[in-house]
UniProtKB/TrEMBL annotation:
Originating organism: Noccaea caerulescens
Residue span of region Disordered: 120-142
Main location: nucleus
Pfam families linked to this entry: Dimer_Tnp_hAT (PF05699), hAT-like_RNase-H (PF14372)
Subunit structure: Homodimer.
Residue ranges annotated for the BED-type domain, each copy included: 56-125
UniProt-listed SUPFAM superfamilies: beta-beta-alpha zinc fingers, Ribonuclease H-like
Gene Ontology MF annotations: DNA binding; protein dimerization activity; zinc ion binding
Record's signal peptide: none
Protein name listed in UniProt: Zinc finger BED domain-containing protein DAYSLEEPER
Amino acid sequence: SLSSPRRTRQIIKKEVHLPHQEANQTKKEKMETSLEVYNDDIEMRSPERQPIKRRKKKSMVWEHFTVETIEPDLRRAFCKGCNQSFAYSNGTKVAGTSHLKRHIAKGTCPALVHAHAHENENENENGNNNMTTPYTPKSETPRRRYRTHNITPYVSFDQDKCRHEIAKMIIMHDYPLHMVEHPGFISFVKSLQPHFDNVSFNNVQGDCVATYLAEKQNVVKSLQLIPGRICLTLDFWTSKLTLGYVFVTGHFIDSDWKIQKKLLNVLMESYPESDEALSNAVANCVSEWGLEGKLFSVTFNHPASKAAVEKIRPQICIKNPGILDGQLVIGNCVARTFSGLAKDVLEKGKDVIKKIRESVKHVKTSESHEERFVELKEQLQVPSDKVLSLDDQTQWNTTYKMLVAASELKEVFYCLETADPDYKQPPSAENWRHVEALCTFLKPLFEAASTLQSTENPSAVTFFHEVWKTQSDLSRAIGGDEPYVAGIAKIMKEKVDKYWRDCSLVLAMAVVMDPRFKMKLVEFSFSKIFGEDAGKNIKTVDDGIHELFTEYMAVPSPPQSEKSEKADGLSDFDTYIMETTGKDLKSELDQYLDETLLPRVQEFDVLDWWKQNKLKFPTLSKMARDILSVPVSAAAFVDHVFDVEPREMDEYKTSLRPETVEALICAREWLLESGDASSSSSAAVVKSEA
């Protein structure tokens, strides 16, 4: 009998020992499937069609499949969504359900893909923007935990999200916009996602601008929270097309008393040499970002005429008529000034530097030469740990490092002439003396410029010391016995003296706001620098500080609420104190200046000190916040402080529209500052077809 227990065991036994291609099915699944086939087979073959209770199919796949008889001994499973057929049973052989699970779990069923995408759209409309949830077949009650083998979950494709990521990639890594039209890029993207619609240059240009506009909203919000005023720097770049580009950066101290900077604009100037170039850049920035009445100082590194500087002053005085009548216009960027000094030193020693460069090139461009050099160094037991490297002549700090390393290894170079027959024309002893003299001049410049790469401390306070020390060292060098050294020092001192004349007021005011120095260091240093004219220059600083404080006192304080005025019920007492003792009270500024100087500890944080004492000096602390935020360098990026010449915009960017150039450069800086380039706060890219 077909329904006998023996027949059932035979079928089960036979199905358990399936061929190797079915080995990935579990024994339990095979037994269940075999029983299902057996019960169906009973109904088909029994002439009497005995009423046998059929075992219910428990596998979750049957929510998506039906079984149909094709031939008497052939049955196939059909997908309810796409109607694709799959093997189910052939005679007594059963295919199982693993391949059916893969069809629905891996997202190969078009109907399920479409349904899942529609579900995601509904979720997005409801505020659940989860575009990466893998498809999981729904079941009222999970029947059984199935074992999967390295099955990648299905992830829905989103064209707009991909375009947004491409735009961010181009911005972050400074790729050309045209790369989206390159055959290699198109082929690569198609291999990842065949459904991706190619984007054109105009498409991606619009996407990049949209990303810039989204990030710009975050910058606008941060500027609105600035408690004090903002200082601007203008960094001029050139181009082969005689167009100028102005990088406008805002510097300020935030509510937590930390120095911050934001790149605000990259503006193209058709006539960079005109007297209006600087003032136009400032006016555009102030208007675009709503900085009227908030501007405190302007620092730039572009050679400008007196007329050009005078056109900037009204920008500072708008709604700020008392900010020293626009005197905080700093035309001498300290980074450009120090680079100019270094350039003078290198020009004076160019012949010696050329010999050193050729010697270093001999060692570094041949593996055998370098091995011989290292062997000599070890034999001579030279204690220096410096490593030779060729310099980049556009960055003067690399030339300084090359000279320092070569100078410390000069003994090796002396012996290299006899050990290496290919080494010819080594530097002479006099050449090495000149190298040491060059390093003596370059070292303080290098150390001072290196401090500009740190944003932890106010640069004005630091550079008062650096410039004063440099000026004093040059004065001593001029009076020395070495003509070579005196000649270099004389050239350098002329530029340092000019910088002092133009910037001593700003630097000195910053020093006064440091409780370790106040006016005492100004008096001491000016007596050394200006000699007989020291008194006049000291008075200029003192008058400027008091004049500025008076203007801050004149600014009305925010009105207090009625509740706060009556909080302690002593408002009449405050009036009485002012009437009876007000005339004899010192101002905050005089009280601050009369207090004892703080000890000069190395780790002192002047900004944190003002943060802790803002209640004691409520008005003076506001003035200190603005003064200490004044930058002395206009370099838009910290790695440009050692540039020998002004930066030049590359040819590709000059071929783009000015608005696109600004969007690419500013957005890149903002994304880097956010610290999360892979998941920025930008909104979804707006579809734009240029």
